[in-house]
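Slide 14.
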Amino acid sequence: GSISTENTNNELKMSGKEIFTRFVEAGRLALVRYGPLEGKLVSIVDIIDLKRVIVDSTTEKHFLRQQIPIKWLSLTGQRCNVQRGVTHKKLAEANKKEGIHAAWASTKWATKIAAQNAKKNLGDFDRFKLMLAKKKQGVAAKKAVRKATFKKKFA
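Slide 15: predicted structure.
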């Protein structure tokens, strides 16, 4: 068959919602998942090509603006409204003004990462106390389950 040219816009729309919500764009906050910067928060400043971007950090003073492969990044939902190639100073001002880092810190993803880091940095005695607390919690849960099932059996 032939393709009709009328109503092509309507035919291309699949639904009212877009499939993707996080795009590789200037100002997008991203978490580095691989490489020497692993675990750091960076902002995308410019796009080199389909595979590489230039990133900058607004949280660290002595961070060199550098290129990084997109595959190494996990895009977050936070984005500040800046132009491509923005200077470090303007990027920091925009992030502060729009409260990007506060918005990131309040997400579930950020709280999970903070909890993982806190657990990773526990000392020996703190790990021991955590183990005891988990044991205590497990015993209490078992008792509650036994009590609930015991009542059902003989009721």
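Speaker note: DSSP finds five helices and five strands in the chain.
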